[in-house]
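#help-structures
NK: newbie question, is this the right format to request a structure? protein is 4-diphosphocytidyl-2-C-methyl-D-erythritol kinase
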Amino acid sequence: MTVRVPAKVNLQLSVGPPRDDGYHDLVNVFHAVSLFDEVTASDAPAGSGGAAVTVSVEGQYAGQVPLDGENLAVKAALALAERAGRPLGARLLIRKAIPVAGGMAGGSADAAATLVACDELWGLGLPRQELMEIAAALGSDVPFALLGGTAVGTGRGEKLTTVSVTGDFHWVFALAAGGLSTAEVYAECDRMREASGERAAWPQASQTLMTALEAGDAETLGKALLNDLQPAALMLCRPLVRTLEAGRNHGALGALVSGSGPTCAFLAGSEAKATALAAALDAAGVCRSAVTARGPVPGATIVRADR
């Protein structure tokens, strides 16, 4: 059972003050893009009694992904088995193309794909809403990876409202050599605000951004892109300043750090302009590599059923 799942870019990430539970209230405009991981779930290894969950990883990021219980895909399979109320196991194979610790929710995507794949493998037939509840308990970005498309996330990002979008938008993602810890970026954001005396406002969705999405207006959307975590990410990873400048100088309609970074996202006016921008960023040497994608695309989707 193989499920394909997309990366995300945050078109708007507005961060409120810290909550008592350690999270922040957010307005998070998620946008799923055509950079995919695939998760294949098959029967548990022989001799495991049928209740073991194992994971292996293929692809350029394989060495950066944990292969034990810390892997979010493993946690997703175990959470689903617990919801089913019986001992169930699976062998998981993750084919990674989404950067690890890159601000594109790769781990959350793998967890979402695992929920769909194991639900089908085990013949549970759980309603999508029940899968969404399990996803929300696993992490703030996991529900959106199930949903896909474009959506506003509130609370800590897990409460989703679908957004109407006209047409496709074309993106370039400048992939960095390393990663950034989401927790460290949020902590730096809080530290910088406290040092400057800035009080975090209650976050609200940008009406300009919503209107641009509905109209398919890439130029207005590019100007409306917003990420409150970007100053913190730039403080922790100074080379990203040069990456963003290069993208703007080579014609991007909009540029921002995706989520907690360090991936940088650039909106282009067309597929051809995205291809040219990616080539320019590669030539400028401001990132490990630059890839093109389009959005929005669907969330976790079964692409091969082996049952």
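mod (FA): yep, format's fine, and the tokens are attached above. The radius of gyration is 19 Å.
NK: thank you!
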